[in-house]
Design a protein that fits this description.
Blueprint (H helix, E strand, L loop, with lengths): L2 H20 L7 H11 L3 H23 L5 E13 L8 H15 L22 E5 L12 E5 L10 H4 L19 E6 L9 E3 L23 E4 L19 H10 L81 H14 L4 E5 L15 E3 L6 E5 L8 E7 L4 E7 L3 E5 L6 E9 L2 E9 L2
Parallel strand pairs: 1-2, 1-3, 1-4, 4-6
Antiparallel strand pairs: 1-7, 5-6, 8-9, 9-12, 10-11, 10-13, 13-14
Helix pairs in contact: 3-7
Length: 453
C-alpha cells in the first residue's frame, strides 16, 4: 500500500471516529489539507512556516515603527464560483451578497456584535483595513457581477483524499477552473465533503522551495483560494447546516487562513482530534501570534467565556481563551474579532504573497494616525508639470516609500528611495489633484500635489 493511499484511509477513519465520538461537525480542515499536501510534497509545511515567519517579522517591524496605522485599505477583488449538481446547492445571489456583507463587516470591525467583545480583550481587537468587492470584469475583459453559477460534479472530499477536495477547482474534474489567482480571490461553494460536516478549507501562502520544481503547490494556481460548504454560506442561507454556524463566519475564518492565520490553539495536534497541550509543553501547539492567549484546543460550536486552558507567560497576565476570535471554532454568534497582531500579519501577507488581488486605497478616515510634522516634508514645484522633488528631514534614515494616490483613493504610482532628496517622475499622469503618501520607519505623512498641464 503506497504512502498516499495509507494516509487517505487513515484520515477517513480518524474523521469518521471523531465525528461519531463528538457528534459535532468539523468546521475547518485547512490544517489537515496542509498535512495531506505534505505527503506528496515533502517540505510543504516548512515552506508555509517560512512564509509565516517572513510575514510576521515584517509585520513586527512595521508595528514597531508606526503601530497599527491603517493609512491604506486593501480592497480584494473577489469571485464566487457556485458549483452545484442539485437545485438546493445553487445558492441565490442574495445569499452570496449576504456573505459578502459578513466578511466586509468582520474584516473592518463594523460587525454589530463588536459590543460582545469582552472588555479584557477590547484593546486587542482591531480593524484589519481589508475589504472585499465583487469583480466587475472577468479575465477576458467582459463585464461580470462576480458570482458565477456552474453545474459540476466534483467528487467528495476526504474519502477521496484532499486532492479530490481540490477537484472543485478544476473543470476537468467536475469543478470550475479558477480565475487567475494572482488577480482574484476565488471562493468556491459546493457540497463540500459530501455533507459529512466539513464547512471549509483554504491554503495559506507558501514560500517556494527550489527542489519542488513544477510540483510546488505555491506555483499550482488551481489550489489557491477558499472552499466553502454551501450550507454554511451567508446569514440568510435557506438550509443552514446548524444554528451555531448560520452567521456566515466560516468564510471569515477561511479567508483568515488564506491570509496566513492559523487556529488560535495552533495546529500541532493529532489530526482531527482534540489536543491537551499548551504552547510551552512538549509537542504543544501555537498559532505564532503573540496577542492571542494560548489554548489547548478548539471551542467546538460553543461560547464558554470561562474557558482558560493554558497559562499565558508571554502576556501581561493570564487571560482566558479568546473564544471570540474568528480563528477559533466557537459558534458564529460568539465570534467577533481579530487581534492587532493578526491584522498586521494578514496585511503583510497581502503585500508579500498576494499583492495582485488587492487594490490599495488611501484611508480617508479621521482616525488615521500621523507620525512626524507635515511641514518637515517639502514637495516642489507644486503645482508641477511632470516631476517633483521630495525633501525629507536630515534625521531621516532607511528606505522611504512614496505612493501617489488619486482623490478616489486609487494607487497611481509607487516609488522607493534611500536618499533625503528624491526626484519623482510624474510623466504620463493626467492633470489633477493627487495625494503623495510618504513613509519610513519614523515618518508617515501625506502631501497634496497638483499636476498641471
Amino acid at each position: 500500500m503506497n504512502q498516499t493511499l495509507y494516509f487517505i484511509i487513515a484520515c477517513s477513519l480518524l474523521f469518521a471516529v471523531n465525528l461519531n465520538a463528538q457528534n459535532q461537525f468539523h468546521k475547518c480542515v485547512s490544517a489537515e489539507a496542509e498535512k495531506a499536501m505534505e505527503v506528496n510534497n515533502p517540505g510543504y509545511l516548512q515552506s508555509i512556516k517560512s512564509a509565516f515567519q517572513k510575514a510576521k517579522s515584517n509585520a513586527n517591524i512595521r508595528v514597531s515603527q508606526r503601530g497599527n496605522m491603517l493609512d491604506t485599505i486593501y480592497r480584494i477583488r473577489t469571485v464566487f464560483h457556485v458549483v452545484y449538481s442539485k437545485p438546493e446547492e445553487n445558492l441565490d445571489d442574495s445569499v452570496i451578497l449576504s456573505q459578502l456583507d459578513v466578511i466586509n463587516e468582520d474584516f473592518r470591525r463594523k460587525n454589530a456584535d463588536t459590543v460582545n467583545t469582552r472588555s479584557i480583550f477590547s484593546s486587542f481587537a482591531a480593524d484589519a483595513g481589508i475589504e472585499f468587492f465583487l469583480a466587475d470584469t472577468d479575465p477576458d475583459g467582459n463585464p461580470t457581477n462576480g458570482i458565477i453559477h456552474s453545474v459540476g460534479t466534483p467528487s467528495g472530499g476526504i474519502f477521496g483524499g484532499f486532492g479530490a477536495s481540490d477537484e472543485v477547482k478544476k473543470t476537468s474534474t467536475g469543478g470550475v477552473n479558477p480565475w487567475p489567482t494572482d488577480k482574484y480571490l476565488n471562493i468556491w461553494i459546493c457540497d463540500l465533503m459530501g455533507g459529512i460536516g466539513v464547512l471549509g478549507y483554504s491554503y495559506p501562502p507558501a514560500d517556494s522551495l527550489a527542489n519542488w520544481g513544477s510540483n510546488n503547490p505555491k506555483a499550482d494556481s488551481a489550489v489557491q483560494g477558499v472552499v466553502l460548504y454551501y450550507k454554511a454560506v451567508g446569514r440568510n442561507n435557506p438550509s443552514p447546516i446548524d444554528p451555531s454556524v448560520d452567521g456566515g463566519r466560516s468564510a471569515t475564518h477561511e479567508i483568515g487562513h488564506f491570509l496566513g492565520l492559523r487556529h488560535i490553539w495552533g495546529d500541532d495536534q493529532p489530526m482531527f482530534g482534540q489536543g491537551n497541550k499548551c504552547a510551552g509543553d512538549v509537542d504543544g501547539g501555537s498559532d505564532g501570534i503573540d496577542d492571542t492567549p494560548d489554548a489547548t484546543d478548539a471551542s467546538q460550536q460553543t461560547c464558554d467565556t470561562t474557558k482558560n486552558t493554558c497559562p499565558d507567560p508571554n502576556l501581561s497576565q493570564d487571560y482566558p481563551d479568546m473564544v471570540e476570535n474568528y480563528m477559533d471554532y466557537s459558534s458564529d454568534d460568539c465570534l467577533n474579532m481579530f487581534t492587532n497582531e493578526q491584522v498586521a500579519l494578514m496585511r503583510e501577507v497581502i503585500k508579500l504573497y498576494r499583492p495582485g488581488i488587492a487594490e490599495v486605497v488611501v484611508n480617508t478616515s479621521s482616525s488615521i494616525k500621523q507620525i512626524g510634522n507635515l511641514e518637515m516634508v517639502k514637495v516642489s514645484p507644486n503645482p508641477t508639470q511632470g516631476f517633483v522633488y521630495v525633501e525629507l528631514p536630515s534625521s531621516t534614515e532607511g528606505k522611504i516609500e512614496l505612493n501617489l494616490i488619486s482623490t478616489e483613493g486609487k494607487l497611481v504610482r509607487s516609488f522607493e528611495s534611500s536618499t533625503k532628496a528624491t526626484r519623482l517622475d510624474l510623466d504620463g499622469i493626467q492633470q489633477g489633484v493627487y495625494l503623495l503618501s510618504v513613509k519610513n520607519r519614523n515618518l508617515s505623512t501625506v502631501k497634496r500635489i497638483v499636476i498641471a498641464e
